[in-house]
């Protein structure tokens, strides 16, 4: 069942599953079934990548099945994120392979491709009634040390995965973020048709930073 909390309203109609994708901090206690978990991560395989390298890797810790991995990922998070992320049934780390397999040259597009894969994963999760919340507030060094990540691989982000829960369970400040209106920049602010805008034509005043 799709999550209809804070469905996004845009200037032009898009796929409903895209309007339903969000980044919640409130999670239900229900575990993610193994089949659904595998389906979500399998969706990453459909993403495009430079030379078909598929440089994405994911460390996954389900609280019930891999508690040690779950705890290590949680410990890598900043204190602010730990407050709410410890309720999610699954924590994961996206990781980029930094060199091409076919010639060992640096892959300057690895992080971009990992982002594409994770975005695709997020849409599949939304279709299944799940949601993910991606975080930059974590220590790559702690992840690298806890899981013995080789030097050629770089932790990119940590994300939660689970079924959205009751926002009332969150502290006041986070509850407001969970239920407040979602705002997106208008097309004119990021889609430049035909040429780069002049300073006068830029519309950075159209959406909050």
From TrEMBL:
Alphabetized UniProt keyword annotations: Oxidoreductase
Q: Does the keyword Oxidoreductase apply?
A: yes
User: Has UniProt tagged this entry with the keyword Acetylation?
Assistant: no
CDD domains from the entry? TdsD-like
In Pfam terms, one family for this protein is: Nitroreductase
Show where the Nitroreductase domain sits.
19-163
- UniProt record similarity statement: Belongs to the nitroreductase family.
Name this protein carries in UniProt: Nitroreductase domain-containing protein
Q: Which organism is it from?
A: Hymenobacter frigidus
């Amino acid at each position: 069942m799709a999550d209809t909390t804070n469905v996004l309203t845009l200037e032009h109609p898009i796929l409903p599953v895209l309007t339903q994708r969000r980044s919640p901090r409130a999670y239900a206690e229900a575990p993610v079934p193994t089949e659904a978990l595998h389906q979500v991560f399998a969706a990453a395989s459909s993403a495009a990548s430079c030379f078909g390298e598929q440089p994405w890797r994911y460390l996954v810790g389900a609280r019930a099945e891999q508690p040690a991995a779950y705890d290590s990922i949680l410990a890598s998070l900043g204190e602010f994120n730990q407050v709410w992320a410890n309720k999610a049934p699954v924590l994961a780390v996206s990781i980029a392979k930094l060199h091409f397999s076919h010639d060992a040259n640096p892959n300057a597009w690895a992080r971009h491709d990992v982002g594409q894969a994770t975005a695709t994963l997020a849409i599949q999760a939304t279709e299944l009634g799940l949601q993910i919340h991606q975080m930059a507030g974590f220590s790559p060094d702690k992840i690298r040390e806890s899981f013995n990540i080789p030097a050629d691989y770089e932790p990119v982000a940590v994300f939660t995965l689970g079924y959205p829960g009751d926002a009332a369970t969150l502290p006041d400040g986070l509850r407001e973020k969970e239920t407040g209106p979602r705002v997106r920049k208008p097309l004119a602010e990021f889609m430049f048709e035909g040429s780069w805008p002049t300073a006068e034509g830029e519309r950075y005043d159209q959406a909050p930073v």
